[in-house]
Design a protein that fits this description.
Shape: elongated
Distance between the termini: 83 Å
Structural class: alpha/beta
Number of helices: 15
Radius of gyration: 29 Å
Helix content: 25-40%
Number of strands: 25
Length: 519
């Protein structure tokens, strides 16, 4: 017999839905035992109560459920609750519950004794002795022995502490499945357990799984609840720890992920691998939209890929997660890193692919934050091959899209590898530069930046492939026919385009083509 064990949903519907889906894939679940605290903190209290009234559920009343329903607390405006944020939370939760949901919660007992497959089970929220006692993995052995004698059952199920564990005390097995909807160990993953009863055997399997955190976070914000409750979900912390780390009214220091993920690859990565990586994303963040982008650069491929990666934020919304890997060689792989640069997220090997983005960010004075993907809860460690490295990148990107904070993925670093890009050369009457990449429209981008040029661009001459362009334009005239034009692009680089058509084709130019700028 397979029994799903859950506790402390705390009004987090996306987490509950993820647990129910995951558990059904793991085993044929016959019964669901819920140890209470179904509401409180999360923004979906009524929706959660409707779900747990399903035929498979056997539920308890938790201490937060009781506080929300308490007539005395309501009449005193929850005055006995010392924290203003929590007073507001209890009042909001009560109002968000329908009359039928309130009635159902009030009908629930604090304890239940059951028998399944010949095993006696005591369901509690706290402990057999108290509705509010915290049982933890390090609770003294003597206390477990006292509670086992008090319970007198084969199994004691508990919640309340949000700490998942199994502990054998004499003939009694204590099980806490952890918190479905409000983990507080710094790991924002939903927690549950599956209990298997087969003859005399009792087996317990604990799980931590991802869910769409951002769906819950956005609902918290829309509900008007204090922002600390959104960050409690993002950070996987309890209220006190979240306030200590973030302050009582934290504001996100980076944009929320948009739900869009790009996969930028080149021909060195097999289509089969790209497809399996999309599956990796879907298994963790099924709500994400994935856009596959194949780099077609054939010359100086890696550098072109770095420039193409830097172009992507122009075409995607703020908060997009960009996954990229070029030149996927076999053999030892570089470490994997994740970065927030401006309003976008980037996850790549630490092989210099972020070089152009980092230089662009410095020129624009955009915020930059980079972590090494070394948290094993979210990322495979020491990937032995390119395919495994892609797995690391996609796993981290999917968790980030779910709403896991960037800093939860690993350790902050300040030394990402940056390439030594070709530099322009000073000549007597100007600069000798070169084309460093060509975009899909055939526009030529050079390594000469505006800071090296005099302020007055009108008298400059740009010479490339035997053609001379007079002046560097501030605006491109779309009515200029097929003429060539030089301009400063949005990264501060000298660029050359053909107003109608491809400058690369017209000039037969490619990365490495020489460009002279004379004063």
């Amino acid at each position: 017999m397979k029994i799903l064990l859950i506790a402390d949903i705390h009004g987090n519907l996306p987490a509950l839905q993820a647990v129910l889906r995951h558990a059904q894939r793991e085993a044929p679940i016959e019964t669901i035992l819920n140890m209470g605290d179904s509401v409180g903190y999360g923004p979906y209290p009524d929706e959660v109560v409707r779900v747990i009234q399903g035929a498979a559920f056997i539920n308890l009343l938790g201490n937060y459920d009781k506080k929300v329903l308490s007539k005395r607390h309501r009449e005193e405006d929850w005055a006995r609750v010392s924290t203003p944020d929590k007073r507001l939370l209890f009042a909001w939760t009560y109002q968000a519950l329908s009359k039928s949901s309130r009635k159902y919660l009030k009908s629930l007992p604090k304890f239940r004794e059951l028998t399944f497959a010949g095993k006696t089970i005591l369901m509690t929220h706290g402990s057999p002795a108290s509705h509010t006692e915290h049982l933890l993995p390090d609770t003294p052995t003597e206390r477990f022995a006292e509670l086992a004698a008090l319970a007198g059952t084969d199994i004691v199920l508990c919640g309340h502490s949000h700490q998942a564990f199994s502990y054998q005390a004499g003939e009694t097995l204590f099980i806490n499945p952890g918190s479905v909807g409000r983990p507080d160990d710094g790991l924002p993953l939903a927690s549950y357990a599956i209990l298997t009863l087969a003859g005399e055997a009792i087996e317990v399997e604990h799980y931590r799984i991802p869910y769409d955190i951002l769906a819950a976070v956005r609902q918290v914000r829309q509900s008007g609840l204090p922002s600390i409750f959104a960050e409690i979900l993002r950070q996987g912390l309890n209220y006190d720890d979240a306030v200590a780390r973030l302050g009582p009214s934290p504001r996100p220091n980076s944009p929320d992920p948009s739900g869009c993920i790009t996969l930028l690859t080149d021909s060195s990565l097999q289509p089969y691998v790209v497809g399996t990586m999309q599956g990796e994303v879907a298994s963790i963040a099924p709500q994400a939209g994935v856009v596959e982008i194949n780099s077609q650069a054939s010359s100086r491929r890696f550098l072109a890929g770095a420039h193409q990666l830097a172009e992507l934020p122009r075409f995607f919304p703020a908060g997009t997660v960009h996954l990229a890997m070029m030149n996927a060689a076999q053999g030892p792989q570089p470490r994997a890193i994740a970065a927030r640069i401006g309003a976008h997220f980037f996850i790549t090997p630490d092989d210099g692919l972020l070089t152009v983005l980092l230089q662009q960010a410095a020129w624009r004075e955009e915020p930059v934050e980079i972590v090494a993907l070394d948290n094993p809860e979210y990322c495979l460690q020491n990937p032995p091959s390119a395919a495994h490295l892609w797995g690391v990148l996609c796993s981290a990107g999917a968790h980030l899209t779910n709403g896991v904070p960037l800093r939860s993925l690993g350790t902050l670093i300040s030394d990402p590898l940056q390439l030594e890009l070709p530099q322009p050369i000073r000549i007597t009457d100007g600069w000798e530069a070169e084309v460093i990449w060509v975009n899909l429209a055939g526009t030529l981008h050079t390594n000469l930046t505006a800071g090296l040029l005099p302020e007055d661009h009108s008298a400059l001459k740009v010479i490339i492939a035997g053609e001379t362009i007079s002046g560097i334009a501030e605006d491109i005239d779309p009515a200029g026919g097929g003429q060539l034009a030089a301009f400063i692009n949005d990264r501060g680089e000298l660029a050359i385009l053909s107003v109608l058509g491809s400058a690369a084709e017209r000039l037969n130019a490619k990365p490495g083509t020489r460009v002279i700028v004379r004063n």
